[in-house]
């Protein structure tokens, strides 16, 4: 198995030249997926070490963490994460067993179930946020070269505009010197 610590120069280049069959949008999407996969691979270990949950359970926690005060219906969580409801039910049960989420019936809907973070989960996420964010930044810096950044800017033109207006600001996708 490849060492995830390898430097990108040690790895074969991602085929991203413009001479292929794919239009720019699909090529950019594929490059984005490759970068996302690399970040997820690095993040899995840090998530397990810092929060003692799976990556999929971590995604549920992150989604719930972005909710103001209440929670979300389980059907909405499944929809937003693109997960089957049966798989989500298992993940929520694991998170509930760990004391990280609560489940309650939705008022007026016998079948509806709302899930929310516990104070324990909020505390854990607060403590783990800095190392997790650093992991994401480092992984993107390692795996997103100039071609990937250019493709991403082609897919999301607002990023290209921001990079032109924030010339002095540090770039989150820049490789450390």
Question: Would you give an account of this structure?
Answer:
There is one protein chain. With 177 residues, the protein is mostly helical. It has one domain: Winged helix-like DNA-binding domain superfamily/Winged helix DNA-binding domain (Arc Repressor Mutant, subunit A). The protein contains seven helices and three strands. The protein has helices spanning 24-51, 55-65, 74-81, 85-97, 119-143, 146-155, 157-165; strands spanning 72-73, 101-106, 109-117. It has a three-stranded antiparallel sheet with strand order 1-3-2. A hairpin with a 2-residue loop joins strand 2 and strand 3 (109-117). The longest helix has 28 residues, at 24-51. Residues 1-16 and 168-177 have low confidence and may be disordered.
- Which strand order does the major sheet show? 1-3-2
Q: What is the makeup of the main sheet?
A: 3 strands, antiparallel
Kindly report the name of the CATH homologous superfamily.
Winged helix-like DNA-binding domain superfamily/Winged helix DNA-binding domain
- Helix percent reads 55-70%
Q: Count of DSSP helices?
A: 7
List the secondary-structure elements in sequence, H or E.
HHEHHEEHHH
The average pLDDT score comes to 79
CATH topology: Arc Repressor Mutant, subunit A
Protein name: HTH marR-type domain-containing protein
InterPro entries: HTH_MarR-typ (IPR000835), MarR/SlyA-like (IPR039422), WH-like_DNA-bd_sf (IPR036388), WH_DNA-bd_sf (IPR036390)
Domain HTH marR-type: 25-161
